[in-house]
Design brief:
Shape: globular
CATH topology: Ammonium transporter fold
Strand order of the largest sheet: 1-2
Distance between the termini: 56 Å
Radius of gyration: 21 Å
Number of domains: 1
Number of strands: 2
CATH class: Mainly Alpha
Strand content: under 5%
Largest sheet: 2 strands, antiparallel
Structural class: mainly alpha
CATH superfamily: Ammonium transporter AmtB like domains
CATH architecture: Orthogonal Bundle
């Protein structure tokens, strides 16, 4: 899965992959709309401006620093240490400032575009979870930290020449492992990483004021615009189909004949997830819940990122159905049982569905040792990156406080940070929880 030393890519394949990558940002736009719609009306402008700022920050920081550690461009063998007589490649050693980009192989250039988009989406996920209390400066600082080191480390391990792609070389026991960790569309590198970062942000910033009053009940704070959320889901579908197809070409070297199946599996996974969530919410609440159904659709797309290019249509339906059943139940569990205030549902939608997709890839991909490789990758994401992002964000919070002051939260992020609201013709009433 290392694009740094590929064989020459045919011009037609290069052009198709580039076209797919030009459509992939629609996934970022869709997530931004979903995040804004699930937040409060008095924070909508800040939510969307923050999304745009995060994309800009990640692009600049990844270009200057992060791309070197990801090791996507040729220029170094990577930082390696030896343990038990075997090499463990843990960090890329490419050129800084995108030096040599114009002379890099075509597949390496395309892989770099893919990673630019991936790091932007990964940084956008915790921004949605911190809605209505996360400062704009803090969101940009989090994005910079993720683009400079956290994402490049994960990308090198999973997509570059890092140790997770070389499990078959370091474990020579016959039948134990004959495959490297697979994450074709970024279920782990983007969505699990983003979801775990969202969890760290929620733990550090705390819940929105009034969300969990002293009486012990959870106060309902519904999203302000279901139309944003549902349209964002449709936008995400286009971006995700392009994203998964581009990932199949870049990381799996899939033939062009495999791309229609990848797109179909992406659609089937999202559709099965929506149908499952629709049914669950209809049974539990008497009527389907629009925001939870949207979360189920998104969870199906996230799960497809791991296995759409690898499994059959029937397996894709099963993967999506499980994600769709689990999502509303997990949203309720996290909020009511664990007092986690996650407005966008990122932990359920991105982290949990991403982990399920990676697990499912190990079940359905008929390669010796693939299941074990997937378990090792999942354990690495949970055991390394969750503590890492929590530590880094805790240190960052001492320099750039993540949470806005109480008065800013009371009047809304739009007025406090931007001086005006997204809907100036509407009167924004004060919440009862602030009295």
């Amino acid at each position: 899965m290392n694009p740094s030393s590929p064989s020459a890519m045919p011009d037609a394949v290069f052009a198709l992959t580039l076209a797919l990558l030009m459509l992939a940002p629609l996934a970022i736009a869709g997530v931004a709309l979903v995040n804004a719609g699930l937040g409060r009306s008095r924070s909508a402008a800040q939510a969307l401006l923050g999304s745009l700022a995060i994309v800009a920050v990640t692009a600049i920081v990844f270009a200057l620093v992060g791309s070197a550690f990801a090791g996507c461009l040729p220029g170094g063998a990577g930082h390696t240490f030896h343990l038990a007589g075997k090499p463990w490649n843990w960090l890329g050693e490419g050129p800084f400032l995108l030096a040599g980009l114009s002379t890099a192989p075509g597949q390496s250039q395309l892989a770099l575009i893919f990673e630019f988009l991936a790091v932007a989406l990964a940084a956008l996920i915790p921004w949605g979870s911190g809605a209505d209390r996360l400062r704009l400066a803090a969101g940009c600082a989090i994005a910079a930290v993720m683009a400079a080191f956290v994402f490049p480390l994960a990308a090198h391990w999973i997509w570059g020449s890092g140790w997770l792609t070389q499990l078959d070389l370091n474990f020579s026991t016959p039948g134990a492992q004959a495959a490297g960790f697979l994450d074709i569309g970024g279920a782990g590198t983007v969505h699990v990483l983003g979801g775990l970062s969202a969890m760290a942000v929620i733990w550090i910033a705390g819940p929105r004021r009034g969300k969990f009053p002293k009486e012990g009940f959870s106060t309902a704070m519904p999203g302000h615009n279901a139309a944003y959320v549902l349209f964002g889901c449709l936008t995400c579908l286009v971006g995700w189909m392009a994203w998964n197809a581009a990932g199949a070409i870049l990381w799996l070297k899939a033939p062009l004949s495999a791309l229609p199946l990848t797109a179909i599996n992406t659609l089937l996974s999202a559709s099965a997830a929506l149908a499952a969530t629709f049914t669950v919410t209809r049974v539990r609440f008497g009527k389907p819940d629009a925001s939870l159904c949207a979360n189920g659709w998104m969870a199906g797309l996230v799960a497809s990122s791991a296995c759409a290019a690898l499994v059959s249509p029937v397996a894709s339906i099963f993967v999506g159905m499980v994600a769709g059943i689990a999502t509303p139940l997990l949203v309720e569990l996290f909020e009511l049982a664990l007092s986690i205030d996650d407005p966008s549902g990122a932990i359920s939608v991105h982290a949990t569905a991403g982990l399920w997709g990676l697990f499912a890839a190990g079940i359905f991909v008929p390669r010796p040792g693939q299941f074990v490789a997937q378990i090792v990758g999942i354990a690495t994401l949970l055991g390394v990156f969750l503590p890492l992002v929590y530590l880094l964000f805790s240190l960052l919070n001492r320099v750039v406080p993540l949470r806005v002051d109480p008065d800013g939260e009371r009047i809304g992020m739009d007025l406090h940070e931007l001086g005006g609201g997204a809907y100036p013709e509407f009167v924004i009433h004060r919440d009862e929880s602030y009295r």
